[in-house]
Amino acid sequence: MKSAVCTLFEGSYHHGLAALANSLQGTGFAGTLYAGYRGVLPAWAAAAAPLPLPGWPEASSLPVGEHLRITFLPLRTAYHLTNLKPRFMLELLDGPLARPGAEVEALFYIDPDICALGRWSYFEDWVGCGVALCEDLNSPLPENHPRRVAWRRYYGERGLTLRYRASDYVNGGFVGVRRADRAFLECWQRTMELMAEEIGSLAAAKVGGGAAYRSTGPADCFDCSDQDALNAAVEACGLDVSVMGQEAMAFKPGRALLPHAVGAAKPWQRGYLRAAFGGVAPRQADKAYWAHAQSPITSHGAWQRLLRRIDLVAASAVGRLVRRS
Question: Which bin fits 11, alpha (ψ -120 to 50), beta or left (φ > 0)?
Fold first, then answer.
C-alpha cells in the first residue's frame, strides 16, 4: 500500500514537525509528509525548493534522508488549524494525491506534537481494518453520557443522525483513512461545519491562538472542537473504524505507537527537572520527542539538545523517587 502523511503547524510547532519527520523515517515510511503551515518556514527548511502543486502554487519541498520528503503548503484560512484537519485531508486527496501517478491509497493525519514509532507497515495494516483512530485520555464516554446524548440531539435537529457504536472517545491528533473511505472525512467536515453554528466559527478553539467560543454547546458537548466533531462523525458515518486503546498514544502503559504530548507545554518548551521535583515526571512523549530531535532534521542547536537531554535524564531519575500525591 502506498500512503502519505500530513500535518498542520505554525509558530514553535515547527520543532514538533521536525521530530515527526525524523520519527517517520525511523519507521521505514517512504513517501511524502505534507505540512500545511501559516507564517514563515523555519530556518531548518531554508533549502526547500519550489514545487508548485494544484491549489498550492507556492508549495515547496525538502528531502529528508533517502526516502522521505516534506512538502510545505502555505495556508490562507480563517480556520484555527485544529479545525482544518478534515478539509485539509480532503483537499490533499482531491489535489496533490489525485494527480496521475500519485497512486496513494491511504492518508494519515498526525499532529506535530506526536512521534511515530514501530514499523510503518503496521500503520498500513491498521488502516486496512477501518478508519484508524486512537482512544483519548478522557475515554470512555458511555452511551448515555450527557456529552453523547447532546451530540445526538444537536445533530439530529440539523438533519444528521448519530447512532451509538461504542464507548470509545477518540483523540483528534491521529486519523488514518484509505482513499476508499473518504466519505468519513466528508462526514467529519460536515459535523465540524454544523458545530460552528454553536461555537461561533471554525476560527474558535480552546488551544493557543483560537478565537473565543460563543458557546460550548449543550452539556459542553463541543468543549474540544475538532475532537468532539470527530467523535460525532464516528457515530454519523457507517464506515468501519479501528480504534486502538489509550496505550497507543502513551496515555497508559502498553505498546505506544504514537506518543502524544498533550497539554499546553510541549516537549521543546518544558523544564523537566523542576517539574520532576514537583512530582511530575517526564512522559513517554517527551522522551520520544528528544530521541527524534537530532537527525536528519535538527531544529535545536547542539548545546541546547545536550542540556535538554541532561535535564530529561536527571528528571527521569528524580521522577522515580518523587511522586505527586
Answer: left
How far is the C-alpha of 57 from the C-alpha of 152, rounded, in Å?
41
Running DSSP on this structure, what letter comes out for residue 4? Answer: E
Residue with cell 530521541: 291
Question: ∠87-123-177 over CA atoms, to 5°?
Answer: 25
- Which pLDDT value is given to residue 322? 61
In degrees rounded to 5, what are phi and psi of residue 150?
-65, -40
How far apart are alpha carbons 201 and 80 in whole angstroms? Answer: 9
Q: Can you give the residue ranges of every domain in the chain?
A: 3-249, 272-319
- Of 132, 155, 115, 51, which is closest to residue 256 (Cα–Cα)? 115
Cis preceding-peptide flag for 42 (omega within 30 of 0)? no
Q: What is the DSSP annotation of 260-324? A: B--SSS-TTT--HHHHHHTT-PPPHHHHHHHHTSSSSS--S-HHHHHHHHHHHHHHHHHHTT---
Q: How far is CA 204 from CA 80, 217, 265, in A?
A: 7, 13, 20
Q: Which three cell numbers stand for residue 302?
A: 547542539
In this prediction, residue 271 carries a pLDDT of 78
What average pLDDT does the segment 45-56 reach? 91
pLDDT at 244 over 60: yes
pLDDT > 70? residue 319: no
What is the structure's pLDDT at 314?
78
Residue-wise pLDDT tens digits, 140-191: 999 999 999 999 999 999 999 999 999 999 999 999 999 999 999 999 999 9
Place of cell 497507543: 248
Burial degree of 20 (CB within 10 A; 0-12, 13-18, 19+)? buried
Tell me the pLDDT band of 70, cut-offs 50, 70 and 90. very high
**pTM of the predicted structure, to 2 decimals:** 0.95
Please provide the CATH number assigned to the domain covering 3-249: 3.90.550.10
**Cβ-count burial 83-96 (b if 16+ within 10 Å, e if not):** bbbbbbbbbbbebb
